[in-house]
């Protein structure tokens, strides 16, 4: 598909002021002096020592020596893209936010997706939460929706965040392991923190190994507040719903992708945008009237709880399209600075104690990462709305403020810049009434830690439940302390007895007969431990269809990647027909052969191989097609790598399609063409391609896992 060039947004026009291309330009120093020799330092004689006066060398090396900045303390690895957001209808009844008021108005956005735990250079396919941070460049200032692909969080109070992160990061004595929770310290912490159980269930589910950033949901997590022009507040939870559905890879596949292409998600996002199949999400909101705040069996301020969609439906209020890759990774994706405290009139906070703590942390962290309180002046961070205030100076100040006054009130500067009235768009905080004692405490309404973990588990399909059991068994299997295994199994009994039994069996520990009182080490001294004890509660509903990926959209193969296995003698008409059917659906085809270069078809035409069995792997594709052509099929059947390629895709439950005369190859694999779903063979080309496309859209045939025929 030809790449569409998006119309520049106001933010792109703003960024263009600082964007530079060196085409047809001389090489210069940073002071603009043209450089005549960029190969040799200045020396005393051509075999002599270098001279200190070589300002060209020193400037070049000085800059290089300081190229790196500290990586983000969490979410260090990420990928970003530009786009826009457009509402479907005016939301003025509930919020005065301008960017949600006019269905004809597009607001520029920059989005950064990330893993949480790994360093900048770690793999994309780690089992991890994914960050989903959106910067809206609205006419009224920046709004950052700094969310994740999981709707709840591990802890209820920001006070615990450094402990959580220290426990999951590589262990401090040997900096091992990288980008994974599967180690002693994390599970030590979690097994002492019952409030983490809901999020842990999500993190052990396939949500934590997405097929693509483009196939993830996003969540604002906390309950926020909309405020309308009359000052009326409405509670709101934000959701991003991907148009391509929510899909994951298999765990075995994730581990292999981490080896063969650690940039898998970054590349996938980049390529989708370059090819013009723009990633899209709908923005959804769950709205709760203030009067209904206490009508739920959980606390709206507790970030370990969702509001099930069956209780409050998600209204889809607009669409986000990502249509432009950054020009420069560092300047944009690395330097972008998000902050949940960046809000605009019409949006406000609630007293969720996790959100309240975040409001300090994000601004603070930019100082150590970007090095200056002027980080907001970096091109990617500056708003398109005008900025005028009396803040001055600091490292790397860009703005040249005119005038003699940098204080308020002033008369010498005509009183400028002046405060805005409400009617002029001035921000005023929601005047929530607070009448309370100052305490370090947690509300009793935060003490149900298991009911929604159970709801999540019970809402999963059998295959998804098995994946959760497998993930717990993998992660805890890496833990070397049996007492941590036992504590975790004890906690899991509170979620689901069968889950606990299955995990315990894999860990070789006993399940407590009577569900034990979970240990909760997060109790302050002098507090009444009873008060902190988790309370058993019934889930708000028994099951929620929205929580299972099984029920996601499966109606498109746009942007999917399909491998055609070919060798000399391949049928050109098979290749052509299938390729055009797949391309018509906006998916991509790559020809994989045992070598690069020209492949001669059965009718002496020539095709060009894109990849070889050495340069690619089945885990990088969504589906596999083997075209006919006797000689090609015989060659592939004799090629161990080709057979492994097919078997591995089969093991990972992907759609496979074989042309008519491929029996000699199929017989070398583990595939049973009669009994295996998602395996399409022979027949009329039109019908075959239709069935293949439908199978690819179905994503995976997990039932194949019940009979694990293929060795890893
Ligand atoms: Fe956080 C980064 C999302 C809890 C402190 N967080 C960060 C990013 C995302 C989130 C998406 C990366 C932004 C980017 O791409 O630059 N964080 C969340 C969500 C949370 C959450 C959805 C719970 C609902 N975070 C959280 C807490 C704290 C932090 C409780 C501290 C009190 N988060 C940070 C941070 C980071 C960050 C240390 C690291 C880099 C940055 O902020 O800019 O300040």
Automatic annotation (TrEMBL):
<keyword id="KW-0575">Peroxidase</keyword>
<feature type="cross-link" description="3'-histidyl-3-tyrosine (His-Tyr)">
    <location>
        <begin position="339"/>
        <end position="362"/>
    </location>
</feature>
<keyword id="KW-0376">Hydrogen peroxide</keyword>
<feature type="domain" description="Catalase core">
    <location>
        <begin position="28"/>
        <end position="416"/>
    </location>
</feature>
<dbReference type="Pfam" id="PF18011">
    <property type="entry name" value="Catalase_C"/>
</dbReference>
<comment type="function">
    <text>Decomposes hydrogen peroxide into water and oxygen; serves to protect cells from the toxic effects of hydrogen peroxide.</text>
</comment>
<feature type="active site">
    <location>
        <position position="148"/>
    </location>
</feature>
<protein>
    <recommendedName>
        <fullName>Catalase</fullName>
        <ecNumber>1.11.1.6</ecNumber>
    </recommendedName>
</protein>
<dbReference type="InterPro" id="IPR020835">
    <property type="entry name" value="Catalase_sf"/>
</dbReference>
<dbReference type="Pfam" id="PF00199">
    <property type="entry name" value="Catalase"/>
</dbReference>
<dbReference type="InterPro" id="IPR018028">
    <property type="entry name" value="Catalase"/>
</dbReference>
<dbReference type="Pfam" id="PF06628">
    <property type="entry name" value="Catalase-rel"/>
</dbReference>
<dbReference type="InterPro" id="IPR010582">
    <property type="entry name" value="Catalase_immune_responsive"/>
</dbReference>
<dbReference type="InterPro" id="IPR024708">
    <property type="entry name" value="Catalase_AS"/>
</dbReference>
<feature type="binding site">
    <location>
        <position position="112"/>
    </location>
    <ligand>
        <name>heme</name>
    </ligand>
</feature>
<feature type="binding site">
    <location>
        <position position="358"/>
    </location>
    <ligand>
        <name>heme</name>
    </ligand>
</feature>
<dbReference type="InterPro" id="IPR011614">
    <property type="entry name" value="Catalase_core"/>
</dbReference>
<dbReference type="InterPro" id="IPR041399">
    <property type="entry name" value="Catalase_large_C"/>
</dbReference>
<keyword id="KW-0479">Metal-binding</keyword>
<feature type="binding site">
    <location>
        <position position="72"/>
    </location>
    <ligand>
        <name>heme</name>
    </ligand>
</feature>
<dbReference type="GO" id="GO:0006979">
    <property type="term" value="P:response to oxidative stress"/>
</dbReference>
<keyword id="KW-0349">Heme</keyword>
<comment type="similarity">
    <text>Belongs to the catalase family. HPII subfamily.</text>
</comment>
<feature type="active site">
    <location>
        <position position="75"/>
    </location>
</feature>
<dbReference type="GO" id="GO:0042744">
    <property type="term" value="P:hydrogen peroxide catabolic process"/>
</dbReference>
<dbReference type="InterPro" id="IPR043156">
    <property type="entry name" value="Catalase_clade2_helical"/>
</dbReference>
<feature type="binding site">
    <location>
        <position position="369"/>
    </location>
    <ligand>
        <name>heme</name>
    </ligand>
</feature>
<feature type="binding site" description="axial binding residue">
    <location>
        <position position="362"/>
    </location>
    <ligand>
        <name>heme</name>
    </ligand>
</feature>
<dbReference type="InterPro" id="IPR029062">
    <property type="entry name" value="Class_I_gatase-like"/>
</dbReference>
<feature type="region of interest" description="Disordered">
    <location>
        <begin position="1"/>
        <end position="27"/>
    </location>
</feature>
<dbReference type="InterPro" id="IPR002226">
    <property type="entry name" value="Catalase_haem_BS"/>
</dbReference>
<keyword id="KW-0408">Iron</keyword>
<dbReference type="GO" id="GO:0020037">
    <property type="term" value="F:heme binding"/>
</dbReference>
<dbReference type="InterPro" id="IPR024712">
    <property type="entry name" value="Catalase_clade2"/>
</dbReference>
<feature type="binding site">
    <location>
        <position position="161"/>
    </location>
    <ligand>
        <name>heme</name>
    </ligand>
</feature>
<dbReference type="GO" id="GO:0046872">
    <property type="term" value="F:metal ion binding"/>
</dbReference>
<keyword id="KW-0560">Oxidoreductase</keyword>
<dbReference type="GO" id="GO:0005829">
    <property type="term" value="C:cytosol"/>
</dbReference>
<dbReference type="GO" id="GO:0004096">
    <property type="term" value="F:catalase activity"/>
</dbReference>
